[in-house]
Write a structure and sequence with these properties.
heterodimer; A: about 425 residues; alpha/beta; Rossmann fold; Dimethylsulfoxide Reductase, domain 2; 2 domains; nine-stranded mixed beta sheet; five-stranded parallel beta sheet; about 35% helix; globular; B: about 575 residues; 18 helices; 24 strands; about 30% helix; selenocysteine (chain A); EC 1.2.7.12 (chain A); Mopterin_OxRdtase (chain A)
Chain lengths: ~425, ~575
């Protein structure tokens, strides 16, 4: 009965690496240390709606075929298309991402990640103002003031607060939660907000106002701040600024409540500027609360292979990047792609209606372990092994620390890495034939 | 069995004392040999300068360069050096390329190879983030690679030094090198990285590190002694305290002096001081800033225990990236630039800030002069490694341009003619008429590296060495570098041939083949009992303070491309 220690959980961007897994008869029978989300991923893979076999849509119905047939059909779609969108790749390994980029380069595609509807604006913010950050252990060991802004780790990253932030105990933070001030800034009183020492409730879409007011105060210009900012009384804003300035070490964790609300990347830009200003008084860093377990990894691999973290257009033979023009939704809303390859993501469930409507019109290749709304509009469906359970590979935690995902059990499914390699080889073969 | 015969080359190989002499070079199965059979492929190198492949011993090409790329997408489109920068579409042989200071991984491999370089050393690997460095290494084609692991603000290091446990310290270094698959010990602003954990810095060699009761001087000497105890192939590699501050030449000389008493355990230097241009500043502020190069060079001329590299400035855009966290914050505030920071738990700090070196700025002009002054005032080229600390002083693709500054007083005068009087008053370069020859250039770009990294098979053309060879379309004796510097720059910008491990990878300045390079790392042997005692200490560190488990910290074998394990036997 093999017991595997220090397994890495492939659910969220926290990438907890202390999971103990017991395997019996190639089944996971016991999971220790995982949170409820991680636990359900480890056990759920036996219960969820796995795609059992490769499929091709014939006369409107998905019909089971072999891997070879599915890959040939997918390669034909790619070779016969002129403007391909490759999207997703955030719940899979860096090795698969690398293969996907090579395929995109080979086919002159646009490749984009789920950051398009998530932390994409954080990347734009970093390009404007930089990214003053730290590894999560710096927060664990030093931070006495922790701010969760527009995020809800109690539900989205359940072990974050105990492993890395609010409740964790470290070298200079041996009292754990008792020695820390926890601030939550949000539009609603989330379960995370309920645990805070200071919950700052702001009006929807007014984050930029509050950040700007805080910057003014931190930089000694409190006189320009009006009596109420973002629905928060000035006295409260002043108090928050004092908390930040008087801290020994501040970390602002920011989520999609900041990146996807009004002002988008300008919010992140302003948070980065606030961090820079705060360092005149104390030590401060910021970390984005990344969702998919390897969305950070996609950004890393894409950046070293192409120079850009997302929305990369290979139509010119070299990488061209202009989010707003070359993002997945930008293309779909313009009805530009004539084929799409979707892997480890579900735009069918998460993209705007207009984008999904165009996706439904064009040939779609799906690579995924699970059936989801995208399967309903896919023409070729290729099931894959689950990284971190059935396949090994690299993933990047939200703080850009990479870890090796373990293979825990055997599988009959091909890995994303193998599928994308086979697909590239088949595309090259067909091109040579042509 | 693959054989190549390079015929009638004009060979410049300082390791053998060969100074531009006509010779044949024989290659079999990737190595240089005495003779080859009649079936060997022949490269006619008549009239061509032939050297060992270039070896960049201090460059930032994997790891935090990715932060540089991430925050500077504009760099991807920059093309100030046509053929060696900007966007290049994929071909049958090559992947797509972008960038100038922070090129993508493929472009790094292709462009170094075009310059005739075949080996690089990434100068800073944070242990916890080492896997990332090796992932990028795997995607850099052609070149052989090695990396230096950061130890200068590491808690375990500082505790062992404070508690006077030199054997455990050595065991920890050995373990850290293995965990990160590193080649040597890098120290950046010793103690400063930890102070930066609280937004502070250390001010010099004897300023205590907050909470750890050690000084930068103790960290330096402690690590140097551990380095020698382990008989590591490279000495400690030091980025001095107070980098980038006027008046810091005094700290630099003080640091160099500290090592007069350290005895190297191998035939190499006891200390390598890096990018000294940034650490050879005189004056007391940016107002009265001036060169400190003559003082540093004067000391180095009288010392024989150290080597150093330049960190030469190239005018135009650059991206600074260093484990010196506080200096990057100061840069960003001073220059109103974007700022990235990435402190690593228990280990070190780092930052990335883009900037622009303008010949119109008297500070930048003096910085440019200081690098050249160091190279020209230090008499022995075997103490000097040529670098731009790419991309801190400027991108490596400008090496050919920088070579012309070293080889031609006339070329320098042309550049200097654009400087303000204030700049000229603060430098000594205009009074220096020394011009390097090809032999000295070969020393600084290949031979010094072979010696200082104890890689006898690299950086020279001896029988038995790796057949890493650069052939330039340039004939010493017929081209006068002091006047015909345009020809020199052109020849070095696109090698006629670059051979990597006996394979032609560049021909007429274009990429011919893209083999995978090797990764060198050092496995230093430590007695089991000492290792076990040290492991107990770090087990506690992992349990209580790290956010990854020890088992997941070690870089796995699968990440090391074509590994070359260098074993050393420590003295305990």
């Amino acid at each position: 009965m093999p017991v595997i220690k220090d397994a890495v959980c492939s659910l969220c961007g926290s990438l907890c690496d202390d999971i103990t897994v017991t395997v019996e008869d190639n089944k996971i029978t016991k999971i220790e240390n995982a949170c409820i989300l991680g636990h359900s991923k480890f056990v759920g893979m036996f219960e969820h709606d796995r795609i059992e076999t490769p499929m091709i849509r014939k006369d409107g119905e998905l019909v089971p075929v072999s891997y070879e047939e599915a890959i040939e059909a997918a390669a034909k779609i790619l070779v016969n298309s002129r403007r391909i969108l490759s999207y997703g790749w955030c719940s899979t390994s860096c090795e698969a991402v690398s293969g996907a980029i090579e395929l995109a380069e080979e086919t002159g595609s646009v490749i984009d990640s789920t950051a398009n509807v998530c932390h994409g604006p954080s990347a734009l913010a970093a390009q404007e103002k930089g990214s003053p950050s730290a590894s999560l252990g710096e927060i664990k060991n030093r931070a006495d003031v922790i701010v969760f802004w527009g995020c809800n780790p109690v539900h989205a990253h359940p072990r974050h607060m105990s492993r890395y932030s609010s409740f964790s105990k470290g070298f200079f933070t041996e009292k754990g939660r008792k020695g820390r001030t926890m601030v939550v800034i949000d539009v609603r009183k989330t379960d995370t907000a309920k645990l805070a020492d200071n919950y700052v409730e702001i009006e929807q879409g007014s984050d930029l106002l509050l950040i700007t007011a805080l910057r003014s105060i931190v930089n000694g210009h409190e006189d320009v701040v009006p009596e109420t900012v973002a629905g928060v009384p000035k006295a409260e804003v002043l108090e928050l600024a004092e908390t930040l300035k008087n801290a020994k070490f501040v970390c602002i964790f920011f989520g999609m409540g900041v990146t996807q609300s009004r002002s988008k990347y300008k919010n992140g830009d302003a948070v980065s500027s606030l961090i820079s200003d705060l360092n005149q008084h104390t030590k401060a860093v910021m970390i984005g609360m990344r969702g998919h377990y390897n969305v950070t990894g996609f950004g890393q691999v894409a950046t070293w292979e192409t120079g850009f973290p997302m929305a990369i257009d290979f139509a010119r033979g070299y990488p061209y990047y202009n989010p707003g023009e070359t993002g997945a939704n930008d293309l779909l809303v313009r009805e530009e792609p004539d084929a799409a390859i979707i892997a480890a993501a579900d735009p069918g469930a998460h993209f705007p209606q207009k984008a999904v409507r165009h996706l439904a019109k064009i040939p779609v290749i799906q690579i995924d372990p699970y059936a989801n709304p995208t399967t309903e509009i896919a023409d070729v469906v290729i099931p894959s092994a689950i990284v971190g359970i059935e396949a090994e590979g690299t993933a990047y935690r939200m703080d850009a620390i990479s870890l090796r995902m373990k293979k825990l059990i055997d599988t009959r499914f091909k890995t994303d890495e193998e599928i994308v390699k086979d697909l590239t080889a088949k595309v090259r073969e067909l091109k040579r034939g042509a | 069995m693959s054989e190549i015969l390079i015929k009638n080359a004009s060979v410049c190989d300082p390791a053998q004392g060969i100074n531009c002499e006509p010779m044949d070079i024989c290659i079999r199965d990737g190595k240089i040999v005495e003779r080859v059979s009649g079936n060997a492929k022949v490269i006619d190198a008549v009239g061509k300068l032939t050297m060992a492949g270039g070896f960049d011993g201090h460059t930032h090409s994997a790891g935090k360069i990715n932060v540089g790329r991430f925050i500077n997408p504009n760099d991807a489109r920059k093309n100030p050096v046509p053929g060696l920068s900007g966007q290049v579409a994929r071909t049958e042989k090559t992947r797509a390329q972008v960038g100038y200071n922070t090129p993508n991984t493929y472009a790094i491999g292709y462009r170094y190879a075009k310059l005739g370089y075949t080996t690089i050393c990434e100068a800073a690997i944070p242990l916890l983030a080492a896997r990332h460095t090796h992932e990028e290494f795997k995607e850099i084609p052609i070149l052989d690679k090695m990396g230096l692991s950061l130890f200068g603000s590491n808690w375990q290091v500082m505790e062992y030094i404070r508690d006077k446990e030199p054997e455990k310290l050595a065991a920890y270094i050995a373990w850290g090198l293995k965990a990160s698959r590193g080649y040597g010990v890098k120290i950046v602003n010793p103690g400063g990285g930890e102070a930066w954990g609280w937004g502070r810095n250390v001010t010099g060699l004897y300023d205590p590190v907050p909470n750890f009761d050690v000084t930068p001087a103790e960290i330096l000497i402690g690590l140097a002694e551990a380095n020698e105890r382990l008989r590591l192939p490279h000495s400690i590699h030091v980025h001095c305290n107070n980098l980038g501050k006027p008046g810091n030449y005094a700290t630099t000389i003080e640091t160099m002096k500290l090592f007069e008493k350290v005895k190297p355990s191998r035939d190499r230097q006891a200390l390598h001081v890096t990018h000294v241009q940034f650490n050879a500043y005189a004056g007391t502020s940016w107002r009265d800033f001036e060169t400190g190069a003559p003082m540093v060079a004067d000391y180095v001329n009288g010392a024989d225990h150290l080597t150093f590299d330049l960190g030469q400035v190239i005018f135009g855009p650059a991206v600074t990236m260093t484990a010196d966290g506080p200096v990057e914050y100061a840069n960003a505030r001073m220059l109103h630039e974007k700022w990235s920071n990435q402190d690593i738990e228990l280990e070190d700090a780092s930052g990335v800030v883009p900037l622009f070196y303008s010949p119109k700025s008297f500070v930048n002009a003096v910085q440019w002069a200081i690098g050249l002054e160091l190279a020209l005032l230090v008499k022995d080229p075997w103490k000097i490694m040529f670098t731009t600390d790419s991309p801190n002083g400027g991108s490596f693709v400008n090496y050919p341009e920088a070579f012309t500054y070293l080889m031609s007083a006339k070329r320098r005068a042309e550049v200097i003619s654009g400087f303000s009087k204030m700049a000229l008053d603060r430098m000594v370069l205009p009074g220096i008429d020394r011009e390097l020859d090809f032999y000295e250039l070969a020393v600084m770009t290949r031979s010094t590296q072979s010696k200082m990294y104890s890689r006898p098979e690299k950086g020279n053309l001896k029988v038995g060495s790796d057949a890493d060879i650069a052939i330039y379309d340039l004939l010493p004796g017929q081209v006068d570098p002091s006047t015909e510097y345009a020809k020199v720059k052109q020849a070095f910008s696109g090698a006629a041939y670059t051979l990597k491990g006996g394979e032609i990878v560049v021909k007429d300045g274009e990429i011919e083949a893209t083999p995978k390079g090797k990764t060198y790392w050092v496995n230093a042997k430590v007695p089991k009992s000492i290792d076990a005692a040290m492991q107990k200490d770090i087990d506690r560190k992992f349990r209580k303070y790290y956010t990854v488990s020890k088992a997941n910290y070690m870089v796995e074998d699968s990440y090391i491309q074509k590994p070359v394990e260098i074993d050393t036997e420590g003295v305990f």
